[in-house]
Write a structure and sequence with these properties.
There is one protein chain. This protein is of the alpha/beta class. The protein has a 7-stranded parallel sheet, sandwiched between helices. The chain has a single domain, classed as NAD(P)-binding Rossmann-like Domain (Rossmann fold), CATH 3.40.50. It is built from 10 helices and 7 strands.
């Protein structure tokens, strides 16, 4: 019997956390995978995902660099199959006061969360538009709704992605390509350790399950929804952010993200 290729999903930031869970769901739903991250653990993730019956191609690439995105895209072209799902999830955070941050550190946040993400979306999105088929999931954040005191650059990048996703969705509304924005809150991943925020209140508080967050995002994408805020507490927080003054939101964020705020 001839092999019938499965549909193909591309997931970035897939070595751990929400990205890995998105890839896991896709594998369980019958998709083959190209998964990418900027660390060797992407190989370990691939081994786990192959156990679910998916063909998995791991790509270790720095998606903060245009060359890294090109490397991932060239892998897709080499495989020679259309991308049915693009889950642009790669992202990093950065805590502490902005004026104390190294330029290289905050630039990497911007380059990873914004530049690399939208470059990849443009490259794969053009192919989807030509085929008039495809689904794109962008991992934004509820952080994009509030000024991020002691997390200023990160929140700014997520505000960009939240806005960008709705704009792109509108541009593609007469095509067969859908765009969905997943907006999680604080999630139980390595994010806060990597961002240097373990001594903050938000770093120490109870967090959402990445598997549940990923399930909410995947379902919204498959349903063609514009956005999804995962978790009822996050929905309330987002609703409040739409009516509270920006200065009050910034002060509220300070209480959560200021270094030392996790000390009791």
């Amino acid at each position: 019997m001839a092999y019938v290729a499965k549909p193909l999903a591309v997931v970035t930031g897939a070595s751990t956390g929400i990205g890995f869970e998105l890839a896991r769901i896709a594998a369980e739903k019958g998709y083959d995978l190209i998964i990418a991250a900027d660390e060797p653990r992407i190989e370990e993730a691939a081994l786990k995902l192959r156990g679910l019956g998916a063909a998995v191609v791991p790509v270790e690439a720095d998606l903060a660099q245009l060359e890294g995105v090109d490397e991932l895209y060239e892998t897709i072209l080499t495989i020679g199959r259309p991308v049915d799902l693009l889950m642009a999830n790669a992202g990093i955070g950065l805590g502490h006061a902005f004026l104390e941050q190294d330029v290289d550190a905050w630039q990497r946040v911007v380059d990873t969360n914004i530049t690399g993400t939208i470059y990849l979306i443009q490259r794969i999105g053009k192919d989807m538009q030509e085929r008039n088929a495809g689904r794109i999931l962008i991992t934004g954040s509820i952080a994009g709704f509030m000024p991020g005191s002691f997390q200023a650059v990160y929140n700014g990048t997520k505000a960009f992605l939240n806005s960008f996703s709705f704009a792109l969705r509108n541009e593609l509304q007469d095509t067969g390509v859908t765009v969905t924005c997943l907006m999680p809150g604080a999630t139980d991943t390595e994010f806060f350790a990597r961002a240097g925020m373990l001594d903050t209140k938000v770093g120490q508080d109870e967090k959402d399950d990445p598997a549940e967050v990923a399930r909410n995002g995947f379902e919204a994408m498959m349903n063609g929804e514009g956005d999804v805020v995962s978790g009822w507490k996050n929905k309330l927080q987002t609703a409040a952010a739409n009516v509270m003054p920006a200065g009050m939101l910034a002060e509220q964020h300070r209480k959560m993200a200021e270094p030392g705020s996790g000390k009791h």
